[in-house]
Amino acid sequence: MTESRLRERFGLFAEALLTGVWIAMAALPLVTYPAAFAAGARHLRRHLSHQPSGFRLFAADVRAAARRGWLVGAGGWVACWLIWLDVSAVRSGLPGGPLAGAAGALALCGSAVAGLRAAALWEPGASWRALLAAAGRRTVLDPAGSFLLVGGVAVVAVSAWFSPPLAIPVLGALAAAALAVEERYGRRRAAAGHPTTSLD
After folding, report:
1. Torsion of the alpha carbons at 46, 52, 55 and 58, rounded to the nearest 10
2. Which of 9, 105, 109, 115 has most Cβ atoms within 10 angstroms of its Cβ?
């Protein structure tokens, strides 16, 4: 590997860690985490394509994505609450509790992956509803990429359990992983003769 290539990859890694800090700051209102991830992914896309980037552009993207993205964030918290109810049902020994708990956990994982995939392709003016619907299809059609993102979410969770501050920069790596998964999916579709868009 050439020195310039190594420097470029290390630069991307450092940029992803910095982006994680920005994502964490933008997600502090709790319902803005989809907008924060969308802005973080868009920042990394600009960085990779050597376009102008920086915190001001990131902040502008957060504001644009949060206009409708806060509803997605609120829906995510409702989903977490429903999963908590499922877990409570399992612990209380209600009939069907284990099945409901497993189905709920699977639904939560699928929703998280679809949310990350949608955020990775968000652009100003895009419809969150359309992005999420298309991302849900890609979550099912691309299980390998979806499992990679589940692993990324697990890394963030383990990092938070081990040392909460460590999970903050890892959020940027998760956004980069979502970008990579979507890029891989798009290339495979194009190679198969099916050009893809964010709504495929």
Report:
1. -40
2. 115
How many separate helices (H) and strands (E) can be counted in the chain? 7, 0
Domain count, the chain: 1
| 3-class secondary-structure state, position 122 | coil
Domain contains 46: yes
Residue 196 domain flag: no
pLDDT digits (tens, 9 = 90+) for 131-175: 999 999 999 999 999 999 999 999 999 999 999 899 999 999 999
What is the token pair recorded at 190?
């194009």
Nearest to 36 by CA among 175, 184, 134, 157: 175
Q: For residue 198, tell me if it sits in a domain.
A: no
Under DSSP, the state recorded for 145 is H
Domain span at 35: 3-191
155 sits in which H/E element: helix 143-162
Q: What size, in residues, is the chain?
A: 200
pLDDT digits (tens, 9 = 90+) for 95-107: 766 777 777 778 8
Global pTM value = 0.89
In a domain, 197, yes or no: no
- CA trace torsion 40, 46, 51, 56 (10° rounding): -10
pLDDT, mean of residues 1-28 = 84
Q: What is the DSSP string of 170-190?
A: HHHHHHHHHHHHHHHHHHHHH
